[in-house]
Amino acid sequence: MEQIKQSLRSIDTSSLVDKVEANLVALLRDRKLRVGDAIPKEMELAELLGVSRTVVREALLRLRMLGLIESKKKKGAVITSPEIFGTLNKTLNPYLLNKETLRDIFEIRLALEIGMADFIFHRIKPSDIEELRAIVAKEPAATEQHLFNTEHEVAFHGKLYQISGNESLKKFQNLLLPVFEYVHSSGQLRKVSTVRKFVSHKGLVDILENGSPELFRNAMRNHLENHFIRLFGED
User: What Rg, from alpha-carbon coordinates, does the chain have?
Assistant: First the structure.
């Protein structure tokens, strides 16, 4: 009986902390606090939310772990800009995700690769073209007939994310690639009966040098065609 009571108390406390955590996030949002602003003291928060300081302290600890607040000398707890991808990296393990989530992440990467054409064209430099050509030169012949090669994908597509100039995109790509590779090799997608010829990395570089964002988007879509076939089947 005593064990049951202990379990019930534990569940109730956890539930209360969950609610206080959600209310704290809503409170900080409603007060329109920004990075560097101090948040109310524990006592004030306990009175506002009608709970004990112990519960507030536990909820604040969770916010610290999420990177939403941090402690500053003479200011107490202040709002901080969270390292979103650092937190995401701790949970984005392909072995711990269900089939539907893995498929969603696989699709996200395809969408990003096609969608960042304008960023690349706006920021690409002649030296970037040279680096891409050097990467392509190390690939085997007839790469347009290879479905997926991790080493080539990381080198070439990683450079494209770098050229985009978007730091969040670069970090996100590093998180997505292991999931992309896992889904590719896990047998979760359809098998392609005939691997179609598609635009190679070299073809993409030629368009980056002499083409337009629209041409590049279409070429990248073609470059990824076999992955779309594995998702939706052949026409």
Answer: 24
Q: Which of 109, 83, 87, 97 is nearest to 173 (CA)?
A: 109
Question: C-alpha dihedral over 21, 24, 29, 30, to 10 degrees?
Answer: 140
Angle between helices 167-186 and 150-164 (to 10 degrees): 160
Domain boundary among the residues 58, 82, 106 is at 82
The encoded tokens of residue 52 equal 């004990």
CATH number at residue 33: 1.10.10.10
| Residue corresponding to tokens 């000398």 | 73
Neighbour-count burial of 203, counting CB atoms closer than 10 A to its CB (0-12 exposed, 13-18 middle, 19+ buried): middle
37: which DSSP letter? Answer: P
* Mean pLDDT across the chain: 83
pLDDT digits 0-9 by tens, 37-68: 998 899 999 998 889 999 999 999 989 888 88
Rounded distance between C-alpha atoms, residue 79 and residue 72, angstroms: 10
Whole-model pTM: value is: 0.71
Tens digits of residue pLDDT in 160-205:
999 999 998 888 888 887 887 777 777 776 665 555 678 889 999 9
Shared domain for 94 and 198, answered yes or no, is yes
Q: Contact, 197 vs 145, CB < 8 A?
A: yes
